[in-house]
User: What shape does this take?
Amino acid sequence: MGVLLNYDLKDQHTPVKNAMKEKGYQDYFEFYKTVDGVEGKKRIKLPNTTLYHGSKTAASARDELMAVAKTKNSLVEFILATSFDPDVTPWASLNL
Assistant: This one.
């Protein structure tokens, strides 16, 4: 199971996000969807301050973001991390 990580920073958004991407976080996730009996992979692009990682826990994602933000001298204002598997977890999206 992976994690969706939503956060807000006072500043240094781009350097923090880029550093998190270097650690394997993505600004999208992919899932499999069957339409008319044909299975295909779809990609969902996430909002600017939301990242996905396919194998982290919520606590480790939170801790990793806090550590990265500290190295970039950025103040973390908000974090919400939750377990997420796009093929298992019930979810809805507006950008399909």
About this structure: The longest strand covers residues 76-84. The chain has one domain: 2-84.
